[in-house]
């Protein structure tokens, strides 16, 4: 919920034949290098992305994709401007937990699918949002409320508002259909490991990190570990591709994910 405004990641252009190491493309007829295209300076403009994971092909994430089980669910209410950013980490959650629901937030028309789920008594949704304003203090609960929900046989749901901090505030303030639900602030000790956007502060976690923390605190430690590792693999892969480096040996997180896939 706290992804920061994106460092621009321009979608790929048609320069498929260019070499990420040099930015030079080759004339298909002669094999001779061509001078770098003009848009070489726009970072990412020539990047070839894997259709499976949407990461630069240089360090594709697909070998590390692995699913996990959790009692709690995650629903994402994503700002429309956030959906297609390749640096968005909300999609990592759905890769690991296939039951994750993703809705697009529109100010004027709430998603009917989301409204139906909010109405479903099997689920106990918690709106994940900081507790720093007095006007909704009566709705604020702690992570123990998630445990109580589990004991009572309902499925706890972490409803994550996904966007920049400004977008998240807007979603929270302008979605009256969320007003009936408890607000769960995340109190995490960890600092962000996200390297793809500049955080407002080191305590500002990105969406996948928030989900991993909540899962861990709420009793789904195994799913939290997998998501954490998958996020690390994403983070390292993407950052290396931005430096035009191929990751030579899998990181410890990547090794754990691959072992799990093989199991
Ligand atoms: Zn891939």
UniProtKB/TrEMBL annotation:
<feature type="compositionally biased region" description="Polar residues">
    <location>
        <begin position="1"/>
        <end position="11"/>
    </location>
</feature>
<keyword id="KW-0819">tRNA processing</keyword>
<dbReference type="Pfam" id="PF03942">
    <property type="entry name" value="DTW"/>
</dbReference>
<dbReference type="InterPro" id="IPR039262">
    <property type="entry name" value="DTWD2/TAPT"/>
</dbReference>
<keyword id="KW-0808">Transferase</keyword>
<feature type="region of interest" description="Disordered">
    <location>
        <begin position="1"/>
        <end position="38"/>
    </location>
</feature>
<feature type="domain" description="DTW">
    <location>
        <begin position="46"/>
        <end position="243"/>
    </location>
</feature>
<dbReference type="GO" id="GO:0016432">
    <property type="term" value="F:tRNA-uridine aminocarboxypropyltransferase activity"/>
</dbReference>
<dbReference type="GO" id="GO:0008033">
    <property type="term" value="P:tRNA processing"/>
</dbReference>
<protein>
    <recommendedName>
        <fullName>tRNA-uridine aminocarboxypropyltransferase</fullName>
        <ecNumber>2.5.1.25</ecNumber>
    </recommendedName>
</protein>
<keyword id="KW-0949">S-adenosyl-L-methionine</keyword>
<dbReference type="InterPro" id="IPR005636">
    <property type="entry name" value="DTW"/>
</dbReference>
């Amino acid at each position: 919920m706290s992804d920061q405004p994106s460092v621009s990641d321009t979608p790929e252009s048609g320069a498929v034949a260019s070499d990420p190491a040099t930015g030079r493309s080759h004339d298909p007829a002669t094999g001779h290098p061509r001078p770098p295209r003009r848009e070489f300076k726009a970072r990412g403009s020539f990047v070839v992305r894997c259709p499976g994971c949407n990461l630069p092909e240089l360090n594709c994430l697909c070998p590390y994709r692995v699913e996990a089980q959790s009692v709690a669910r995650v629903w994402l209410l994503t700002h429309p401007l956030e959906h297609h950013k390749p640096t968005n980490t909300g999609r990592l959650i759905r890769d690991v937990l296939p039951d994750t629901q993703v809705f697009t937030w529109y100010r004027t028309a709430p998603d009917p699918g989301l409204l139906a789920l909010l109405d479903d008594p099997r689920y106990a949704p918690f709106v994940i949002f900081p507790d720093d304003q007095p006007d909704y203090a009566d709705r604020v609960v702690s992570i123990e409320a998630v445990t109580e929900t589990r004991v009572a046989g309902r499925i706890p749901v972490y409803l994550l508002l996904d966007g920049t901090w400004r977008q998240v505030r807007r979603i929270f303030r302008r979605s009256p259909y969320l007003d009936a639900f408890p607000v769960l602030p995340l109190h995490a000790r960890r600092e962000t490991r996200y390297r793809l956007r500049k955080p407002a502060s080191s305590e500002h976690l990105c969406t996948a990190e928030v989900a991993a923390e909540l899962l861990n605190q709420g009793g789904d430690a195994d799913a939290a570990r997998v998501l954490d590792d998958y996020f690390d693999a994403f983070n390292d892969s993407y950052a290396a591709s931005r430096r035009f480096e191929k990751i030579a040996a899998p990181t410890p997180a990547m090794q754990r994910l691959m072992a799990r896939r093989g199991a």
